[in-house]
Design a protein that fits this description.
427 residues, alpha/beta, ten-stranded mixed β-sheet, four-stranded antiparallel β-sheet, 10 helices, 27% helix, elongated
C-alpha cells in the first residue's frame, strides 16, 4: 500500500542561476510561449497520431534544436512507434435500408466478429426466419450483466446463424457509434454471417409502430490500420558514466480530443526550460535525456516503447523525472511528488532541494497512470511531479510552474556529486 505523508519544505535552497530575477523573467516568458502554443486550438488537443500531435512534435523538435540538444530519435529528434493495430470499415463496406445508403462508422458499424460477406433480404421486425436477414431488438434481449455487450452480440449472432439467418442487424442498443468502433480493436473469430449495429436514428425507423418489411443490403469489408505516435528526444552528452531522463507527455487523451487544456503543456514547457538551463549549467556529472512522450493516454505506449528501445543502456540511467500537469498550482497548494519510495536516497535529497514557496505531499509509489511507471518497471528510481487539476492556458499559474521547475532543477543539482541512486521496489 502506498504511503502518503504531508510535509513542508525544511530547507530553502537558492542557486546562482535562480538568484537572478532576469533569468526568472526569461524562463517565465518561455513557459508562457510554450504553453500558449501547445494549448492552442491549432493543435486540436494533440491527440496521438493526429495532425495536431505532428505539429506539436515539430515545435518541440525546433525548440530542442534551438537549445542545442543532440537529436536522439530515429529521425532526428523524432522516434516513431506503433500505438496499436486495429480495423475500421473500408470504402467497400456499405449498407442500405429501403434504398437509403447508411454511413459506415456513424449510422452503422460492422461488429468485430462479422463475416466479410454480402447479404440481402426483406427483413421484418419481430419476424426472424431462415434464409433472411434478422432484425434483433437489443432492448428486448435478456442481457447478462456478467458479460460484455460485444460478447452478448456475438452469442446472439451465433444463435441466428445456427437458425439459418443470412445476416443480423442489432438495433436499440445503448452504445454510441464511437463505442462500437472501439470494439473493432478486438480480434474475435469471425462468424459465418455479416453482423452490424445501427445507431439510434436508424433504430427508430426499424422499431416504429408502422414498420413493415425493410429491403436491406449489406456488404461488410474491413481494412487494417495502424495508429502511430511520435516521441521527441534530445540529449545532452557530458560524457558522464550515468544519465538522467527528464520527461513529460505532450499528447492529450483520445484520438479526437479538441479540449483546449494544459494537460500536459505545462509539464512539457517546464521540461524544455529545464533542458535549456541544464545545457548552460555546470552540472556535468550526468548526461541528460530530454524526452516528450506521446501515447501516454493510450496506455503509456510512448514511454513503454522508449524504455524498450533506448539508445542508452538503461542500466546506466541514474533516475527518471516525470512532470505531468504541474501548471495549476495556486498559492499554498501542495505539489505531489510520487515515487519517493523508489530510492532510499530520495527523502534527504528532496528535503535539501525544497523551496519555501512549495508545500509538498509525498507519495512513495512508483506505479501510476503516467510515464514514469515505464521506467520504474525497469528498476529505475523515479520522481513524479503533478497537480491533478487541468486548466486552459489562460488559467495556468506560471509562477507556480516556475517554482516546480526550480525544485526539479535543485534536485538535479543535489544529485550532481552523488553516486548513482539505489533502486527500491515498493508496493
Amino acid at each position: 500500500m502506498k504511503k502518503i505523508t504531508w510535509l513542508l519544505p525544511l530547507v530553502v535552497v537558492t542557486t546562482c542561476i535562480y538568484g537572478q530575477k532576469k533569468e526568472d523573467r526569461k524562463t517565465l516568458g518561455n513557459l508562457q510561449a510554450h504553453i500558449s502554443y501547445l494549448s492552442s486550438d491549432k493543435l486540436e488537443g494533440r491527440s496521438t497520431g493526429a495532425p495536431g500531435e505532428r505539429l506539436a512534435a515539430t515545435y518541440l523538435s525546433e525548440q530542442m534544436q534551438q537549445i542545442g540538444l543532440t537529436p536522439m530519435g530515429e529521425d532526428g529528434f523524432l522516434q516513431a512507434f506503433t500505438v496499436k493495430e486495429t480495423r475500421e470499415p473500408s470504402a467497400d463496406c456499405q449498407m442500405t435500408i429501403g434504398g437509403n445508403k447508411l454511413e459506415a462508422g456513424r449510422q452503422f458499424v460492422p461488429l468485430p466478429f462479422s463475416a466479410g460477406k454480402t447479404a440481402r433480404g426483406e427483413a421484418i421486425p419481430g419476424v426472424n426466419e431462415p434464409d433472411n436477414i434478422w432484425l434483433i431488438n437489443v432492448a428486448e434481449l435478456d442481457t447478462d450483466n456478467r458479460k460484455s455487450m460485444v460478447a452478448q452480440y456475438l452469442q446472439q449472432t451465433q444463435i441466428a446463424e445456427k437458425a439459418g439467418a443470412t445476416g443480423v442487424v442489432f438495433y436499440n442498443g445503448k452504445e454510441t457509434a464511437a463505442e462500437v468502433m472501439k470494439w473493432l480493436d478486438q480480434r474475435l473469430k469471425a462468424t459465418g454471417i455479416p453482423a452490424v449495429w445501427v445507431n439510434a436514428d436508424i433504430s427508430k425507423k426499424l422499431g416504429a409502430d408502422d414498420a413493415d418489411g425493410f429491403p436491406i443490403q449489406m456488404q461488410i469489408a474491413f481494412k487494417n490500420i495502424q495508429r502511430n505516435g511520435t516521441n521527441v528526444i534530445g540529449y545532452i552528452n557530458n560524457k558522464a558514466p550515468r544519465t538522467i531522463v527528464i520527461g513529460a507527455h505532450y499528447d492529450y487523451h483520445g484520438w479526437d480530443a479538441t479540449d483546449k487544456t494544459e494537460d500536459n503543456a505545462s509539464g512539457t514547457a517546464a521540461m524544455l526550460e529545464i533542458a535549456r538551463l541544464l545545457k548552460n549549467s555546470r552540472l556535468h556529472n550526468n548526461n541528460y535525456i530530454i524526452i516528450a512522450f506521446s501515447g501516454k493516454e493510450q496506455g503509456l505506449s510512448g514511454s513503454s516503447y522508449f524504455a524498450s528501445h533506448s539508445k542508452v543502456d538503461l542500466s546506466q540511467v541514474n533516475y527518471m523525472i516525470n512532470m505531468d500537469r504541474i501548471g495549476t498550482l495556486s498559492p499554498g497548494t501542495a505539489l505531489q511528488i510520487g515515487g519517493t519510495g523508489t530510492s532510499p536516497g530520495w527523502s534527504a535529497i528532496i528535503q535539501q532541494a525544497a523551496t519555501k514557496e512549495l508545500p509538498l505531499v509525498y507519495d512513495s509509489s512508483g506505479i501510476s497512470n503516467s510515464d514514469h511507471a515505464s521506467f520504474y518497471k525497469k528498476n529505475i528510481p523515479v520522481l513524479y511531479f503533478c497537480k491533478n487539476t487541468p486548466a486552459s492556458a489562460d488559467k495556468v499559474n506560471y509562477d507556480g510552474t516556475l517554482h516546480v521547475l526550480k525544485l526539479v532543477y535543485n534536485i538535479i543539482d543535489k544529485t550532481n556529486n552523488k553516486d548513482k541512486l539505489a533502486f527500491s521496489s515498493i508496493q
